[in-house]
Specification:
about 500 residues; alpha/beta; Leucine Aminopeptidase, subunit E, domain 1; Aminopeptidase; 2 domains; nine-stranded mixed sheet; about 35% helix; binds ligand BES; binds zinc ion; binds manganese (II) ion
C-alpha cells in the first residue's frame, strides 16, 4: 500500500512541478530599501558608494565600506564580492562595474551577474548610481537577471530532497520612473521571446515534431494583436511545389509544415522584413546518416525557426512599429525507405532543381523553398535567414560569434553593429562567385554541397534562391545556439541565440 506520506509527497511534487520556466517576478520600487534579506549593489573601482549603497553602509554601521576596504575590492566589471555578517541584511553582494560609462548591453550583463550570485532567493537589487547614459537602468538589470536565471526543469522529478525551484521576487530599487514601464511593456516580452526559443531548442525530438512545434508556437501567440498565422501542411507544401522542403521531411512519420507568422505593427501595405528560420526538429542526417558522437544535439536543429518565433513574438507583444513576417519551414530529417537518397534530384518551388549530394545538407534545402516563398508571397524589403546550418561555421566561430554572410560587406558590417548593441555578436564569412561555381551540378541546376563544403557553400545554395537586388542576411548559428559554458545572460544549454539579434534589427529599422 502506498503510504500516506509518499502519496502526500507525490501530490506536492505534482502541484509544485513547474511546467515551464517562469522568470522571477520583478518589482520596481522607488522607496527606501527595507533593511533585511539579501541585497545586491554595484560599485566601481574608485569605491564610491551611490546614495542607495550609502544607506546600506549606514544600516550596517559602516561595515560595507570597511569590507570593501579590507577586501581591496577592485570594482572590475562583473566581479562579485559576497559579504556576510552584514546585519541587518543576511548577505550583501557587491558587483564591480569597471570605470567606463556602461552601455545597455553591459547593464544587462550586470543583471545577469546578479542572478548568477543570487541563489534563487528573494533579493533587492540597487539600480541607482551606475555611470551610464542609458535610461531605465533597472529594466536592463531585470532583463539580464531574467535571461540568466533560465532553467528547463520539465523532465526533472522533484521531491523533498530535490525541491523544485521556487517562485521569488526580485525588487529593483530605482528612482528612475522609466525603468518599470520599459521592462513591463518591452523588455519582459523580449525575455519571453528568448524563453520560447530556449524551450523549443531544448525540447527533445520525441516530444517536439513539426506539428507539435506549430502548436507550441501557436499557443504562445494566443491573444496577441495584429498577428496572423498560416500553416501549410504536407498537402499544401506539395501543392505549392516545395519539393525541397517536402523531400527533407518525407522520410519521417511526422509530416513537414511551413509555419508563417505575420505581424503588422507598421503601416498596412508597407513591405515587411522577412525572417526565415530553419526548423529541423531532429537531424539524423537522413540516409547520409551522421556518426553517433554528439548526435543528440541535433534535437536543437530547429534553433533558427525557434529564434524567428521568439523574435516576432517579442515585437508583436510590445507593439513594435514594424511589419515583419516570420517563415518557419519545419521537418524531421530521418533515414527510412521513404527518405530522399544521395543523387536524387528535387524540384524547388522556384522551379530550379537541386541534386542531393548529401541528405545531411538538409537545412539549405528547406531554406531554398522557404526564402523563395517569403519573396513570392510578401515582397519583403529585407530578408534575414537564420539556421544551424554547418559544422564549419561552428568550428570557425566557436560560441562567441554567429556567422554572418551577405553579398555586400557593408551590410555585414551593419549587422556587426546590431549584434554589438543586442549582445549577440556576429562576424562575417565570405561569399565569392567561386562558391556558386562549386555547387554547379552535372545533371541538375545546382547541387546541395560541393567543392570545399563549408558555411559559404551553404550560403551559396540559399543565395541561389534570393533575388540579387534584395538586401539579404544569412546567419549561420551552428556554433552559438547551444552553449557548453555560461555567459552572464546565457546559462549552459540552449541560448535562444538570434532573438536578441533580430529584435535589435527590427528596432534599428525604426531609427
Ligand atoms: N544541422 C547540421 C549542422 C550542425 C552541425 C549544427 C553541428 C550544429 C552543430 C547540418 O544539417 C549539417 O549536417 N551540415 C553538414 C553539411 C555537410 C553535409 C555539407 C555539416 O556541416 O557537416
Ligand atoms: Zn541540420
Ligand atoms: Mn544535417
Amino acid at each position: 500500500m502506498i503510504s500516506r506520506h509518499l502519496f502526500k509527497t507525490a501530490l506536492i511534487a505534482a502541484l509544485t512541478t513547474p511546467v515551464a520556466f517562469a522568470a522571477p517576478d520583478f518589482e520596481f520600487s522607488d522607496r527606501d530599501l527595507t533593511t533585511s534579506g539579501d541585497v545586491i549593489l554595484f560599485v566601481g573601482p574608485d569605491g564610491t558608494l551611490s546614495p542607495q549603497a550609502a544607506q546600506v553602509d549606514a544600516a550596517t554601521d559602516g561595515r560595507l565600506s570597511a569590507a570593501l576596504e579590507s577586501e581591496a575590492f577592485e570594482g572590475l566589471f562583473g566581479l562579485p564580492l559576497s559579504l556576510r555578517a552584514m546585519a541587518p541584511f543576511s548577505t550583501v553582494t557587491v558587483i564591480g562595474t569597471g570605470d567606463e560609462p556602461l552601455s545597455a548591453r553591459q547593464i544587462t550583463d550586470l543583471g545577469g551577474y546578479a542572478a548568477i550570485v543570487n541563489d534563487q532567493d528573494a533579493v533587492a537589487v540597487l539600480a541607482d548610481g551606475l555611470l551610464t547614459e542609458v535610461e531605465g537602468v533597472g529594466a536592463y538589470l531585470a532583463k539580464g537577471y531574467a535571461l540568466s536565471s533560465y532553467t528547463f526543469t520539465k523532465y526533472k522529478t522533484f521531491d523533498e530532497e530535490n525541491p523544485a525551484p521556487i517562485d521569488y521576487t526580485v525588487s529593483v530599487y530605482s528612482s528612475d520612473p522609466a525603468a518599470e514601464s520599459k521592462f513591463d511593456s518591452d523588455l519582459a516580452y523580449l525575455v519571453e521571446g528568448v524563453t520560447l526559443a530556449r524551450d523549443l531548442g531544448t525540447e527533445p525530438g520525441n516530444t517536439l515534431w513539426p506539428a507539435e512545434f506549430v502548436d507550441r508556437v501557436r499557443s504562445a501567440y494566443r491573444g496577441v494583436d495584429n498577428v496572423r498565422i498560416r500553416v501549410l501542411d504536407a498537402d499544401d507544401i506539395r501543392r505549392r511545389g516545395m519539393g525541397a522542403l517536402m523531400g527533407v521531411g518525407q522520410g519521417s512519420i511526422h509530416d513537414p509544415r511551413l509555419m508563417v507568422v505575420e505581424y503588422t505593427g507598421g503601416d498596412r501595405g508597407d513591405a515587411p522584413i522577412a525572417l526565415v528560420g530553419k526548423g529541423i526538429t531532429f537531424d539524423t542526417g537522413g540516409i547520409s546518416l551522421k556518426q553517433n558522437n554528439g548526435m543528440w544535439l541535433m534535437k536543437s536543429d530547429l534553433s533558427g525557426a525557434a529564434a524567428v518565433a521568439g523574435t516576432v513574438l517579442a515585437a508583436a507583444k510590445r507593439g513594435e512599429d514594424v511589419n515583419v513576417v516570420g517563415v518557419m519551414p519545419i521537418a524531421e530529417n530521418m533515414p527510412s525507405q521513404d527518405a530522399i537518397r544521395p543523387g536524387d534530384v528535387l524540384t524547388t518551388m522556384s522551379g530550379k532543381t537541386i541534386e542531393i549530394m548529401s541528405t545531411d545538407a538538409e537545412g539549405r534545402l528547406l531554406l531554398a523553398d522557404a526564402v523563395y516563398y517569403a519573396q513570392q508571397e510578401y515582397e519583403p524589403k529585407m530578408l534575414v535567414n537564420i539556421a544551424t546550418l554547418t559544422g564549419s561555421a561552428a568550428r570557425a566561430m566557436g560560441d562567441d560569434y554567429g556567422a554572418v554572410i551577405t553579398r555586400d560587406i557593408e551590410l555585414s558590417l551593419d549587422m556587426m553593429e546590431i549584434g554589438k548593441v543586442a549582445g549577440e555578436d556576429v562576424w562575417p564569412l565570405p561569399l565569392h562567385p567561386s562558391h556558386f561555381e562549386q555547387i554547379a551540378s552535372l545533371i541538375a541546376d545546382i547541387k546541395n554541397t560541393g567543392g570545399q563544403p563549408g558555411a559559404s557553400i551553404g550560403a551559396a545554395v540559399v543565395g541561389t534562391f534570393v533575388d540579387e537586388t534584395l538586401p539579404w542576411v544569412h546567419l549561420d548559428i551552428a556554433g552559438v545556439d547551444w552553449r557548453e559554458t555560461e555567459t552572464p545572460t546565457s546559462p549552459i544549454g540552449h541560448a535562444g541565440w538570434g532573438v536578441r539579434f533580430m529584435d535589435q534589427l527590427l528596432r534599428s529599422d525604426q531609427d
